[in-house]
Amino acid sequence: SVLDLMQGGYPSRTSFSDLYDMYKAVLPPELAALDPRTFAKALFKALGMNEDDFQFGVSKVFFRPGKFAEFDTIMKADPESLVALVGKVLKWLVKCRWKKVTWACVACIKFASKIRARGQAAIVMQNVIKMYLAKNIHRPRYLGIKELMTVTSQIESMKETVEKMPKNKEKFRAQVDGVLADLQQSITTIKGSLTISRDEIKKMQAALSAKIDKQLAAIKKEQEKQKLMAEAERLRKLAEEMEKQRLAKIEAEKKKAEEEAEALRRKEMEAQAKKEAEEEEKRLEQEKIRAEKEAKKVDKVKEAEDRKKKDEEAALEQERRDHELAMRLAGDFGNQQSALSEDTQKFASGGGVAGQAKKKTAKQKTTTHTFANKKQEALHKKHDLSKWKYADLRDTINTSCDIDLLEACREEFHRRLKVYHAWKMKNMNNVKTKADARAPAALQAAAAQRGAAPPPPAKKKKTDRPQRFFRIPFVKEEDKKANRGGKKGWWYAHFDGQWIARQMELHPDKEPVLLQAGRDDMEMCELSLEETGLTRKRGAEILPREFEDEWTKHGGEKYVAAKKK
Q: Cα-atom radius of gyration of the chain, to the nearest Å?
C-alpha cells in the first residue's frame, strides 16, 4: 500500500501521466509516442538509476528521498545531454522489445509443449481406463496364474532334494518333471479360457498343491530311508576302517616283531659265525699241532724204517757175499748144493734180494676208498652203497624215512659228485671248466685248504635239518676276461642241512640261473656246508626272507623240504 511504501523509504511520488506531461514538451517524437508507464520505466533505465531508489505502482512511481529532485535536474539539463539520454532510452527500448519477443517465443514453445503433453496425457488416460476395464475382466485369471506360480519354489526345492539323493534319483526326477508338466498344463488352460471362474482356478490350485505335498512326502520318506542306509553304510565303512586300522596295527606289530626277530636272528647268526670261526681257528690250530706231531712221528717212523731198511740191506748184502763165498767153496768141492745150507737154498730159490722186495711190495698192495671226513667213512662202513646206481640214491633221498640211510645216501651221492667233478676238471678243457664254474672259486679254495673234516661232536638225533641261506659275490671267468670287473654278480645258496638244496646266480645283463636239487644236481655245488666255509664267512649268511624274495622275484618254484616221519 502507499503507507507501506512511504514507511519503507519512498516518500516522494508522482503519477505516470504527470511525469509524462511534465517532460512531454522537451521529449523527442520517438519518446513522446510512448505510454506514460513505459516512458517512465525507459527513462529511469536510461538515466542509470538504481532500482532500489524507486518503485513502480499501478499508476504512480515512488522515489527515495532526494532522488526525484536528482531526476528532475537531469531532465532539465542542456540539449546535448538530452540527445544522449534519448539515445540511451531508445537503445533500452530496443532491448526491452527484443526480450519481449524472445520471451513471447519461449512462451509459445512452452504452450505448444503443454498442448502436446495434454494430448499425451489424454492417451495415457485412455490407456489407464482401458487397462482398468481389462483388469476387471482378466483379474481372476492372472491372480490364479500368480497363485499357481507360487508353487514353483516348492518344485525347485523338490528338485534340489532329488538331486542330492544318492539312489533312485531318476525315478523321483521323473515325478518332479510330471508335477511341472501339470503346472504348465494348468497355466495353459487358464490362459486359453476367458470364461474360467475363480472357483475353478482354486480347485486346480488345490489339486496341484495336494499332488506336490504327496510327492514331497514321498521324497522326504525316501530321503530319510536313504539317510538311514547312508548312515548304516558309513558305520559299516567306519567299522571296516577301524578293522583295517586294527589289522594294520597288528601287522605293524607283527612286522616290528619280525624285524626284532630278524635283528635277533642276525645277531645269533653273527654270534654263531663268530663261534664257528673261532672253532675253525681252534680246529686249524689243533690240526696244525697234530700235523706237526704226526710229521714228527712220520719222520721218526721213516728214520726207523730207513735204519731197518739199511740193516736189512746190510744183512742181505752180507748174505749175498756169504752166498757167493759158499758158491765158490762149493765149486772148489764140486757140489754147489751140498755146500749150501737150507736157509741159503731157500733165499737163492726166492730170487735173492729182488725177490724179497717184490714180495713185500705185493703184501703192501691193497684197495681203499677216499672219504672227505670220518663221518662219511663211518656211514660207508655201516651202509655199503658203492654198488648203488645214481637213480637208486636219488629215489632213496626223496622217499626214505630211515634217517641213517638217508644221510648215508646223501653222503655217497655228493662223494660221487666230487669224484665226477674232479675227473671232469682233470680231463676236460680247463678254461671251459672255469667258465662253467658251479660255485665261486673262493669256496673251492676253502674246501681244498680245509682237507678232511674232524669227526662231528656227539649230538642228539633230530628229525629236522637246519635251513641256512647264504649270499656272496660271484664273478665268472669269462666276465673277468671281458674286462667286466666292475659288474659284480651274486651267488645265492640254500643249504638243507649239510647239502645244497637251491642255488641261484644273478649276473648283470644276464638271465638269472636258478638250480634245484633233484633236477640240476650236475650243475650245482657239490661241497658240503662245512667244506664251503660259508658259516665262518662274515656277512655271508642272510635271512630266509631275503633269499625267498629274490627266488620268487626271478620265477623260482616254491621249495618244499622233505618231511621225515
A: 72
Grid coordinates standing for 253? 606289530
Instruction: List CB contacts of 161: < 8 A, sequence separation 6 or more.
Output: 219, 220, 223
| CA–CA distance, 47 with 38 (Å, rounded to integer) | 14
How is 112-133 classified by DSSP, letter by letter? HHHHHHHHHHHHHHHHHHHHHH
Alpha carbon distance 385, 393 (integer Å): 9
Closest CA to 450 of 311, 335, 301, 288: 288
* pTM, to two decimals: 0.40
Q: Cα 294 to the chain's mean position, in Å?
A: 69
Give the 3-state secondary structure of 225-278.
HHHHHHHHHHHHHHHHHHHHHHHHHHHHHHHHHHHHHHHHHHHHHHHHHHHHHH
Q: Find the helix packing angle between 152-164 and 198-333, rounded to 10°.
A: 10
- 389: pLDDT confidence band, cut at 50, 70 and 90? confident
Give per-residue pLDDT as tens, 63-95. 777 666 666 665 665 666 666 777 777 788 888
The phi and psi torsions of 223 (rounded to 5 degrees) equal -65, -45
- Which segments within 400-549 are labelled E, that is strand? 467-474, 489-496, 499-506, 513-516, 541-542
Going by DSSP bridges, is the β-strand pair 489-496/499-506 parallel, antiparallel, or unpaired? antiparallel
H or E segment at 14?
strand 12-15
For 559, the 3-state DSSP assignment is coil
Span 167-224, pLDDT tens digits = 777 888 888 888 888 888 888 888 888 778 888 888 888 888 888 888 888 888 888 8
Task: Give the per-residue pLDDT at 6.
Answer: 59
Cβ(30)–Cβ(90) below 8 Å: yes
Task: Provide the residue type at 316 as one letter.
Answer: L
- Residue 555 zone, left/alpha/beta (φ > 0; ψ -120 to 50; rest): left
Q: What angle do CA 133, 136, 138 make, to 5 degrees?
A: 105
